[in-house]
Amino acid sequence: MGKYRDLAEKIVENVGGKENINSLTHCITRLRFKLKDESKANDDVLKNMDGVVTIMHSAGQYQVVIGNHVGQVYEDVVDMTGLGGESSEPEEASGSLFDRLIDVISGIFQPFLGALSAGGMIKGLNAILVATGLLTAESGTYIVLNAIGDAIFQFLPIAVAVAAAKKFKVNQYVGLVIGGALCYPTIQLSAIAVEGAKPLYTLFAGSLFESPVYMTFMGLPFVANNYTSSVIPSILIVWLASKLQRPLRKIIPEVIQNFFVPFFLLLIALPIGFLVIGPVITILTNMLATGFDSLLAFSPILFGLIVGFFWQVLVMFGLHWSLIPIAILQLGTMGYATALTGMFGASFAQTAAVAAMYFRLKNPKEKALVLPAVVSGICGVTEPAIYGLSLPKKKPFVFSMIGGAVSGAFMTAMGVRSYVMGGLGVFGIPSYINQQTGDSSGAIYSVIAIAIASVIGFVLTFFFWKDDAVVEETPEGQKAMEVRKEIVTSPVQGQMMPLSTASDQAFAQGALGKGVVIHPTVGEVVAPFDGTVMTMFPTKHAIGLISDNGLELLIHIGLDTVQLDGKYFEAHVEQGAKVKRGDKLVTFDIRAIEAAGYSVETPVIVTNSADYLDIIESDQKDGVCNSDELLTVLV
Is 2 in contact with 79 (CB distance < 8 Å)? Predict the structure, then answer.
């Protein structure tokens, strides 16, 4: 029985019971019900229920706002009612393409982060046992432990594809087959090379896009690639399958869908993936290899800076293979390599950034991921740190890239050479020792690079990153927690409208923050909370407030009313004044302002919206008075 079972039972009872629920999903803070009859739901009871922030009617959904622990409540509701279905419904797509990609990747990795961390720790343990002489790389114990620890990384496309299938609502066994096909030995370029096969022909021979073709698929060139340990190809192919799934279900009769929908999904999505994704990755890899080779010849220091900065991104997209052939060629011709020295500090910058996150994270579950991520990161396995912690938070990931860049530039500036390939994390230090001459200066420089990368990653994250999410844990066995929230009462009496209806597009598009628009019926602005007047514009048409809890609010009276230069406005407080909820701030003459040709619609905006978990508008339909709740802000 889940610890939110009592709350789940009360919610189900007050939305009209299981029989009144058509479907249920959840987003970051809300249970989103589709009810057969919303009139059967007890709005007042739910609003006042311990553990429920408020309820909303929106977009045909009956939304029960819970807070950051909504996923646990959802699981108990599903377990109790047997509604089933996917665990969540994504929030509406927002932000840049890059932000959405990061959200998708981090969301896909969440289900198997524990296994990923465990694998990294086992690999680290194995490396320590070998380094201390307790095991040899040829021993059976080492081989078994290596298989256990390395399996999830070697076959990462399978885990990623299964999780992506769940996220994109594709049958997870279809995802498993997609990931398995990407890892299939004869698909890999390395398998073909071992056989010593000669290419049938070469696409774009003599150009940056040169790609050898060893086989064809239905007469089309099949450009082989090594997808093991990759992430993006699996996600893209499963996403493609999700887009094909709906039209296939419309075409194929329901009685045979269980067999023929997966059949056509695999038959269409995988060949497209192999014929498009493979060549694209190969072309990008070749272009990067040529570019890196030229950059290395032009400026080793700049080369180290760029490789150190982008190394983690290259690994994520499977493009790090562009540097491997250069390093192999250098080792074969010169006996040492410099192509990979620039990436050495990247894993330590990442590990240190995650270590700093421990002191800033507010979610105990995320904090629990830090120790195993740091342990595996020290040993050179950074996937748990990247996908579980730094990448979803964005800034720590960028800070680790900066640390990797500086350490990479240092390594190449010092002319550090690697004499063997292999050895990750701290176990890579010996690879910079010249065994023939005994020169260990490269190893010493590598230790300094570790310090540089670690200090930069840790300091930047510790001082310049703040965790926006706030989670309050409930002691085991207690009822659902009460979410911390701040209530903003209406500063103006009038008709409330969604912010998207604002005449000014800067407000309507949310460029200044989240909030609402009020069409005033009374020309008076009062304090919506206890706080301080942060800004009183000389024209008195706008006022900025900050609550005692740090919420920043802009009240902008009218549109373009700055041009009135204070005419028809009277301020009753000064900038810097302390105010209590309900204190009079500004009065204005609605009729005179409108007669002068200006609108008095008043946006009320939370300007630091990004600092909060959610901002929920009142559902008042008959207008708001000064004492009415306007916004509920979840902290």
Answer: yes
Positive or negative torsion for Cα 247, 248, 254, 258? negative
φ and ψ of 83, to 5 deg:
-65, -35
168 phi-psi bin (left φ>0, alpha ψ -120 to 50, beta other): alpha
Catalytic annotation, residues: 27, 556
For residue 232, give the H/E element and its range.
Answer: helix 232-251
Which residues of the chain fall short of a pLDDT of 70?
A: 1-3, 27-29, 58-59, 67-69, 83-100, 103, 188-197, 208, 318, 321, 422-423, 468-483, 621
Report the C-alpha gap between 567 and 539 in whole angstroms. Answer: 8
Helix (H, G, I), strand (E, B) or coil at 499: helix
Q: At what angle do helices 172-183 and 257-272 cross, to 10 degrees?
A: 30
Burial of 546 (0-12, 13-18, 19+ CB in 10 A): middle
The length of the chain in residues reads 635
**Token couple for 59:** 């977009």
pLDDT at position 27 is: 64
Mapped to the 3 state alphabet, what secondary structure does 8-57 carry?
HHHHHHHCCCHHHEEEEEECCCEEEEEECCHHHCCHHHHHCCCCCCEEEE
pLDDT at 148: 92
Helix locations, 273-425, DSSP H: 278-298, 300-317, 324-334, 346-357, 364-378, 383-385, 391-393, 395-413
CA-nearest of 405, 409, 406, 398 to 460 is 398
The β-bridge partners of 634 are 485, 614
Spatial distance between the Cα atoms of 413 and 407, rounded to a whole number of angstroms: 10
Coarse DSSP helix, strand, coil percentages of the chain, rounded to the nearest 5 percent: 50, 15, 35
444: CB partners within 8 A, 6+ apart: none
| Both structure tokens of 540 | 């008195």
Under 8 Å CB-to-CB from 500, ≥6 apart: which residues? 508, 509
Listed in sequence order, the residues at least 6 apart from 307 whose beta carbon sits closer than 8 Å to its beta carbon are 292, 323, 340, 342, 343, 408
Instruction: Please say whether the dihedral angle defined by the alpha carbons of residues 35, 36, 38 and 42, taken in this order, is positive or negative.
Output: negative
What sign does the dihedral 178-179-180-183 (CA atoms) show? positive
The per-residue DSSP string of 540-584 comes to SSEEEEEETTS-EEEEE-SSSGGGGTTTTEEESS-TT-EE-TT-E
- The residue to which tokens 């929908």 are assigned: 261
